[in-house]
Amino acid sequence: MLVAERMNRVSVVIMKDDMEAVFEEIARTGVLHLTRITEIDEWAEDLQDVGVESLSNDYSRRRRKISEIMEEIAPSSPESEPGKGEDIGIVDLRKIDTDIAKIENELAPILTSRRSLTEKLSELKSFRSQVEAFVPAGLPVRGLMRSSLLASEIGTIAESQIETLRTQLASVPSVVLPYKQDGKNVSILTVVLRKDRSRLVDALGQVGFAKTRLPEDLSSISSEIESKIAGEIEEVEDELDKVKRDLEGKQDSVLPLLKDMLARVEAAILLLDIKNYCKLTEKTCLFSGWVPRGKTDALVAALKEKTDGRAIVEVTGAEKLTDPAGGEVEVPVLFKQPPFLKPFEMLVSGYGTPSYRMIDPTIFVGITFLLMFGMMFGDVGHGLVLLVAGIAMAIKSTRWRDAGKLAVYCGAASIGFGILYGSFFGLEELLPTVWMKPLENITDLFKVAIGFGIVVVSLGIILNIINSLRTHSFVENFFDKSGPLVGVVYWAGVGLVIKFMASDGGTPNPAIFYGLFIAPLALFAVRAPILRAIGKRHRTWPDGFATYIMETAVEILEILMGYLANTVSFIRVAAFGLAHAGLFVAVFTLADVVSQRSGGLVLSWVVLILGNLVIILLEGLVVTIQALRLEYYEFFGKFFKGLGSKYEPAEIVGSRPQPQSVKGGE
To answer: In CATH, what class is 136-213?
Structure first.
């Protein structure tokens, strides 16, 4: 759980005649994370590539075509299903093309009809929208336009000019009817007597009226025409429903064929991807990859069986390998987490994948994130809402299942702190206060937040020290800004502050001050000659002694100010906890104000419900962001050095293998 699965590098030499059988076995077993053999064995660079890029592109085009057909007939269906063992192999492109053409011919009449009806429906709805945009519904526009007694205009003016227009037309019989708003402009219909037309034209000119040029067919719009459009839309929708039912009838016979075809094509693409990692000699094929140590023997045995013992397999533990440049080989990372920690893997992966020898911080992230979230969002009622929403999300959506579980955990944390605060939807009289009320214990809340920050920062330093031991870089890391030496400075500073506060301003013991604070800083200041003496530096003062002194002074100041800022940053945990309680006060105050008005009881309940929804949605998002910020910057920044790559084996269902790059050691 805390450390990655141990990996072995497997380098294989097989006969060319055995390539197909071996690669099919690799795809079936799904345990080999392919990598370039040239990453470690530079001599293989001059060997021949298999050269399957063009063929792989041909299969990729077929996969795209099949996926497009599936998307058109069944958008919600899964793209492919797990392939059977006998389905793995290079399928004939001509057979695929023939099958695709046959399915397209069978579906063509239905799909063509659906496209035609969809376009027609879109045109009719667009026409109806134009009618609604140009002409106010329910008015006899045709009669107004052709009237010998009335003069009318349809167009737009600024909303602020409506009253001005009405004032200017107040002296004559007139109607100014706004019927549609678009931003700051309003569509209006104006009507006056025919004899007052000139007055209407003058008034419209003064308010910036823009006349709407009605198409000829719209100038005679009537309720009969509108009814006719609605009838045509209904007819087209009925025809479209019939076509959709016909298409659904075809799905039962066509969709399984498409899924099977897609699975076969994807299997072929996978085999070609595997070949792309290989190097060839005149009679042999060479390839390599990473396998979890516990699965290595089974893979080697399978390769030997498929080649009748003709395979040469070299297995090397990851710890024994170095890249040609002398640095560490980048090893793919596989962490086995308990299912309940899966949601927190999302939070860690948002920052990056820990490298092979790093401690996996997922469990620490889970604990600290929930404590921070609960402290900032503590309320039993709000926690219940989050919990229920998370359960619904996890049940209904596979895609958002982990996010739903995370919401459940956050809801549970909110409920826990809500019990401690004695808060239920902001009401503090229903539950007893087990710990404290945030607004009544502000100082204590800030002390807890700072104490929590000290623990998190200290945990980051400890993980950095452990990682340095695991990567055999303790000496280099000893003088790191989050290494053990600076850690002693930080803990000594924390101790001094605690002692100062506990002793009511008393002077700390000088021996402790010099021994735990100044001495490590002095040792940090002379790290250059120490590293030079033990052979970790080629030159003591690469840029000169004066430059080194200035850089060291700046670094010490940066360390002291940085750790102070890191710790003080956790004040925001208390601040948002107070803000959460303060928003409740604002909502209840507003509800009390509106309750004094007519219909106040209903209005106050509306305010309470909407206010709580706003707090849950808005502050819930902000609190999540703040908790992540503290995790990433104040915690991860202490030990998360160097990113790794995920273990992605070549398998018939799953991610395509990607070339793994080699990076030198940090």
So the answer is: alpha beta
